[in-house]
Every structure is written in C-alpha cells, then in structure tokens.
Amino acid sequence: IVVTGSNDHLWKMWALPDGNIIMTGEGHTDWLSGCCFHPSGSQLVTSSGDTTVRIWDCSKRGCILTLEGHAHAVWDCSWHSCGDFVASASMDNTSKIWDVNSERCRYTMCGHKDSVNSIEFLPFSSTVLTSSADKTLSLWDARTVSRLF
C-alpha cells in the first residue's frame, strides 16, 4: 500500500503491485506533509499545511477526527505503538502529543528554536525524537514533557 498526496488537497491510497486506488481522502484545505498508518493498519493519520492533523478510518473510508491546535503548518505525524496517541511536528517550533481517545492535546513540547520538521516515537516507549530546522535532534519523555537530550 502506498499513500500519495497532491496539490488539490486529496490523498490516495494505492494497492501494490496492481496500482488500484483503495481509498481517497478529502478534507485538508492545504498541502499534505505526512502520513502514518495506525499500528493495526485500520487507521491513517495525516498532517497538513492547514495546521491540522486528521485521523482517517480505512473501513469507513473517511475522516473521523480533526486535531487542531498548531499555529502554523504541521510537517509530520506519527502513531505511538499502542495506537492511543499521535505525535505532530510543526512550523510553529512545537511538537504535540495528542490523546486520540479524549480527542485533545495531552502535551506540547517547546524548546526548538525553529520549525520542528519530523517526529517519531521510539517503539513501545514514551520517548519521542524530534528534528528541527535549528539543526538539532531532541529526545523527549512524552510523560513529563522533558527533554532527555
């Protein structure tokens, strides 16, 4: 399966190797910057220049949740291995940990001096790795919102 974005704010999920379109998503109002499958494969999270993160249900073929709270474009998104949390990295110099069950931002991580360009959870851990345009990498403890390194 391959997910691609386009300038018309649509994304498409393609099956390999036959190239058939499995699902199309519409809802973001600006360019798509990132996507990541839920650990079970049943959902997809996307990030966008429209400052939002959206969660899509593959069986319902639609958006089930829009997460709002970043002040600028969101560059990247990632699922925690338990499937209950999503992380986002933004041009507003912050990254956020979202609780999908309560549909709210649980933590905002501040400390980078420029855009946070990517974010990833260490599998089966509360450790988060961010990379920034300030030319640094940071390790965070998502439970305490403290920078580890």
Automatic annotation (TrEMBL):
GO terms for cellular component: axonemal central apparatus. PANTHER family: SPERM-ASSOCIATED ANTIGEN 16 PROTEIN (PTHR14604:SF3), WD40 REPEAT PF20 (PTHR14604). GO terms for biological process: axoneme assembly. It comes from the Eukaryota. The gene is Spag16. InterPro entries: WD-F-box_domain-protein (IPR050995), WD40/YVTN_repeat-like_dom_sf (IPR015943), WD40_PAC1 (IPR020472), WD40_repeat_CS (IPR019775), WD40_repeat_dom_sf (IPR036322), WD40_rpt (IPR001680). SUPFAM superfamilies: WD40 repeat-like. Coiled coil: none annotated. Keywords: Repeat, WD repeat. This is SPG16 protein. The keyword Chloroplast does not apply. The lineage of its organism: Eukaryota, Metazoa, Chordata, Craniata, Vertebrata. WD repeats lie at residues 25-57, 67-108, 109-149.
